[in-house]
Amino acid sequence: MDGTTYGALGQPGVGFLMAIIVGAIAGWLAEKFTRSDHGLLMNIVMGVIGAIVANFLLRLLGIGPAYGFLGNLIAATVGAILVITIYRAIAGRHQPYQ
Is residue 1 part of a domain? Predict the structure, then answer.
């Protein structure tokens, strides 16, 4: 690491409340894109996990973490979609598309 202290979502300056808000919105968007049916709590969890995964992958690619509300929202949404897709592939449980 570069010595920077990272907050929630792996971002400097992102607090716990903002992580919950971004996680809820990103989880809801990922739910809509993947045609899943989760509750609010699972949307928050998926959004936060998605943000962590996406920011980790961005750092691995040498791009660096996403910044700002919109950057975090996009990264968290893409990460949550990735997490849901990988979970479905591993679990072998495919929900029918409606």
Answer: no
